[in-house]
Design the sequence.
């Protein structure tokens, strides 16, 4: 129980800090009196789960990464649902292996952490703890009480961050001209389908309704259309929808927002095409159901403007580039690595 609690303390700390999975990694961390000189290994904290080029990562590291992948663990009594556990564990294992390979590559390339950056990271890391006692407990559990070991772990995190910035983040930037070229070459992705913004009131007889039930549904529909026609605006129609409609949109004032014309029943589309904005339709039969629509807006088919999608497009293209470059880096580093799951 005590061991499980110590792991969860570290996991909860990691969840509150963007780089905590690397910052508090419990692998065999190189430490020295200087930044990267005369390095020796310190004992690992936790049970070994994988060895990457001779460097051991533990179940502490794996648990922290699993929490990052599945941040809802606290809603599941601190664990991962059984049906998801294997996939999450595999993903977490691959990630901690990747981070260790990145760290080792940064060391081989002679990357260093400026003293000012190191001091700032140490200060930020210390601030995540709610009290000095919590900090000391973490230091004892994960670093044998040594601030030197903690410093080495923080340096490891910063080197990972530094290499990924140089090899992935900086190379993933998408200039406006590149986004514009993509926009021009892929017009189908930016077409706006014709749509209608509507509110609905629906009367739905039960499945396999009897003649008597269908008659009752028609009676409710006739009463509904009288009340709907008496409404004067969006709000009054919406209040009525919440009161008498039987479809799922009643809780949203019957508002279905903009609906692609291809997703509307033909009976409804035909009526909408002859309506004015703000108008309430007559009763529309759709199969055995009845619906009433209020037309709030009509958007003809067209093309989005580049200026309107520029920012979101650049963000998506950058995300795609980032994922591609990370995958390529992972493949490259694994090609010559020796990875042994324990």
Sequence:
């Amino acid at each position: 129980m005590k061991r499980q609690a110590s792991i969860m303390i570290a996991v909860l700390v990691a969840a509150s800090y963007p780089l905590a999975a690397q910052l508090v990694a419990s692998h065999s961390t190189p430490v020295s009196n200087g930044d990267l000189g005369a390095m020796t290994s310190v004992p690992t904290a936790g049970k070994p789960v994988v060895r990457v080029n001779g460097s051991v990562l533990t179940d502490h590291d794996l648990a922290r990464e699993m929490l990052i992948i599945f941040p809802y663990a606290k809603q599941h009594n601190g664990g991962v649902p059984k049906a998801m556990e294997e996939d999450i564990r595999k993903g977490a294992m691959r990630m901690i292996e990747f981070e260790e390979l990145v760290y080792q590559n940064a060391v081989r390339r002679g990357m260093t952490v400026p003293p000012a950056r190191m001091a700032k990271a140490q200060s930020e890391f210390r601030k995540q703890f709610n009290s000095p006692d919590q900090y000391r407990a973490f230091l004892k559990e994960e670093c044998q009480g040594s601030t030197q070991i903690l410093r080495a772990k923080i340096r490891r995190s910063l080197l990972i961050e530094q290499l990924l910035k140089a090899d992935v983040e900086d190379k993933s930037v998408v200039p406006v001209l590149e986004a514009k070229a993509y926009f021009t070459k892929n017009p189908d992705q930016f077409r706006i389908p014709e749509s209608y913004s509507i509110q609905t009131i629906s009367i739905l007889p039960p499945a396999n309704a009897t003649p008597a039930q269908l008659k009752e549904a028609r009676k409710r529909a006739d009463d509904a259309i009288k009340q709907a026609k008496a409404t004067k605006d969006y709000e009054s129609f919406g209040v009525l929808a919440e009161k008498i409609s039987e479809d799922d949109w009643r809780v949203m004032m019957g508002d279905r927002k903009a609906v692609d014309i291809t997703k509307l029943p033909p009976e409804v589309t035909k009526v909408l095409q002859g309506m004015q904005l703000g108008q309430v339709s007559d009763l529309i039969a759709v199969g055995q159901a009845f619906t009433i629509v209020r037309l709030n807006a009509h958007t003809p088919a067209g093309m989005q403007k580049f200026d309107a999608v520029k920012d979101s497009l650049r963000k998506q293209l950058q995300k795609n580039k980032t994922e591609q470059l990370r995958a390529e880096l992972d493949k490259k580093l694994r090609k010559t690595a020796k990875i042994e799951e324990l």
Observations:
- The longest strand covers residues 289-299.
